[in-house]
Amino acid sequence: MSNRKDPAWKYGVEVGSGEQKGYKVIQCNFCDKILKGGVYRMKEHLAGVHGNAAPCTMVPPEVKDEIKAYIDKNDAAKKGHK
């Protein structure tokens, strides 16, 4: 089950799932790009971070900053638990 509390869900909609791999297929509300791989890939897309998704060229700066801060906070929390 997906974590619908993740802020990225405010900016995309699930349009399907990977039949064999179990990942989510999400469409960006800003540019309509279809992203295969789940909500983390959607966050990479919105934040414009280098990873597995092309950056969204239509995301508002405040949304980009919100998602980038969320990624950074979670990455820091994961490093603190190791």
From TrEMBL:
Specify one Pfam family.
zf-BED
Q: What is this protein called?
A: BED-type domain-containing protein
Secretion signal span = none
- Where does the record place the BED-type domain? 3-63
GO MF annotation: an example: DNA binding
Keywords from the UniProt entry? Metal-binding, Zinc, Zinc-finger
